[in-house]
Specification:
Structural class: alpha+beta
Oligomer: single chain
CATH class of the largest domain: Alpha Beta
Radius of gyration: 43 Å
Helix content: 25-40%
Order of helices and strands: EEHEEHHHHEEEHEHE
Number of domains: 2
Number of strands: 9
């Protein structure tokens, strides 16, 4: 039975007097490679394993080990990128809806605005927003109303007129926050429809 000396390529570490079966097991397990050097007992010259045809079969059936890092792909970077894209698209969608909401408050020359007769207008609550200097003031049915009293006065108007439609007048220079305040107050007062008109 032949015994072999084995020397790992690059490290120079040696294993002395291994049997043929032991070397085959090392090859199959992936612990030695073609570049590792070997010599038979009694020989003085080191040769690589590929120089010995008796080990070729072991190399052909070799199964590599320690490849867990190759098989398990690190998904952390991909997950981070996906989360960033998700947040970006959520913010983009929210911003687009906000812009659409703001644009809807402006008049569109091509849009068809429903006409209201004078008798119909008299039966609806009328709100006018005007600027007094830099301050927006509110008139409900031609009466000046403080901003903190908007909801209560609108509720009283609903009871009096028995109509849940509101006509809102304001000019382009009125801050949009004032328009939002009236819309919020109208919803709180249970108005069903808000008709917007400009330039009163």
């Amino acid at each position: 039975m032949s015994l072999w000396d084995l020397k790992n390529y690059g490290t120079g570490s040696k294993s002395t007097l291994l049997e043929y079966v032991e070397i085959n097991e090392l090859i199959i397990s992936g612990l030695v490679s073609f570049n590792d050097e070997i010599r038979k007992q009694g020989e003085t010259i080191w040769k690589t394993l590929q120089d010995y045809p008796e080990f070729a079969e072991a190399f052909s059936s070799k199964t590599t080990i320690n490849h867990d890092d190759d098989d398990n792909i690190d998904m952390n970077a991909l997950i981070d990128v996906c989360l960033v894209l998700l947040v970006f698209f959520i913010l983009l969608t929210s911003y687009a809806k906000l812009v659409q909401h703001l644009e809807a408050a402006k008049t569109n020359p091509d849009s068809k605005i429903p006409s209201i007769s004078t008798s119909q207008a008299e039966q609806k609550t009328k709100v006018v927003i005007k600027l007094d200097g830099n301050i927006a003031v509110f008139y409900i049915n031609e009466q000046l109303v403080e901003s903190e009293n908007l909801v209560s006065v609108l509720k009283a108007s609903v009871k009096k007129l028995k109509n849940k439609d509101l006509i809102l007048y304001y000019s382009d220079d009125v801050p949009y926050q004032a328009v939002i305040s009236i819309q919020d107050a109208a919803r709180a007062a249970d108005f069903q429809q808000i008709l917007q008109a400009l330039g009163k």
